[in-house]
UniProtKB/TrEMBL annotation:
GO-annotated cellular components: membrane
PANTHER family attached to this UniProt entry: TRANSMEMBRANE PROTEIN 205
TMEM205-like domain boundaries: 40-141
Protein's cellular compartments: Membrane
Membrane topology summary: Multi-pass membrane protein
Name of protein: Transmembrane protein 205
Transmembrane segments: 36-58, 79-98, 110-130
Keyword Transmembrane helix carried by entry: yes
């Protein structure tokens, strides 16, 4: 009996050491370099979303023809969505490393959830909604070219001609319906991702000790 007690103590000591070593891997303050990289990634995501979603498109559509606008967007959006995926993945990974799950409060749980949602929405746009909308857009443009449409500048030009084509051509009507569905889903994902990034940026700013 006297021999079994030290063995039990040894096992307990070993378990405590393992717990401590595991905890040390995930706890602790991030270095200044990690803080800078984390803030840069989050700011990059937010700035990119603001520029592409609210500035670049509205400025461009008033300067070039609709078909040129569509072509530019088809080249821009894949880069945009994949950049968002990369920065969201990096931000989520960095936040998770320095915020162990067992120590999270509800604010931190919310932030991790927001990072995850931002990553998922960017992924959906990059892999499905974006490419699908682009493919349908080019099919629409082929029909529009046959009827002399698409060379005007601005969204309001020849609106009646587009409506007439939609009424007369069932194939074009189906294209418009499918495009509207994918484009709407893509915009919804983009908006949700923007809200998630904005909320996380606000949380980060509120936790700064000073500017």
């Amino acid at each position: 009996m006297a021999e079994e007690v030290p063995r039990l103590d040894l096992r307990l000591d070993s378990g405590v050491k393992n717990i401590k070593s595991d905890t040390m891997v995930t706890e602790g303050e991030p270095t200044d370099t990690i803080k800078v990289l984390y803030l840069l990634a989050l700011s990059f995501s937010w700035g990119l979303q603001v520029w592409v979603s609210f500035i670049a498109g509205f400025a461009l559509v008033r300067q070039v023809t609709l078909h040129t606008f569509g072509l530019v967007q088809s080249k821009l959006f894949p880069v945009y969505f994949h950049c968002l995926m990369g920065s969201s993945c990096f931000s989520l990974a960095m936040y998770a490393v320095y915020h162990p799950r067992e120590l999270l409060d509800w604010h931190e749980n919310l932030q991790i959830g927001l990072y995850f949602v931002a990553l998922v929405t960017a992924g959906l746009n990059a892999r499905w909604f974006g490419p699908a909308a682009t493919e349908i857009m080019f099919q629409m443009q082929e029909v529009e070219k046959e009827h002399g449409l698409g060379n005007q500048v601005g969204l309001t030009s020849q609106r009646e001609a587009y409506a007439k084509l939609k009424e007369q051509d069932p194939k074009y009507k189906a294209y418009r319906s499918t495009f509207g569905r994918y484009h709407g889903l893509s915009n919804l994902c983009n908006l949700i991702g923007f809200i998630c990034t904005t909320t996380n940026l606000i949380y980060t700013a509120m936790n700064l000790s000073t500017i």
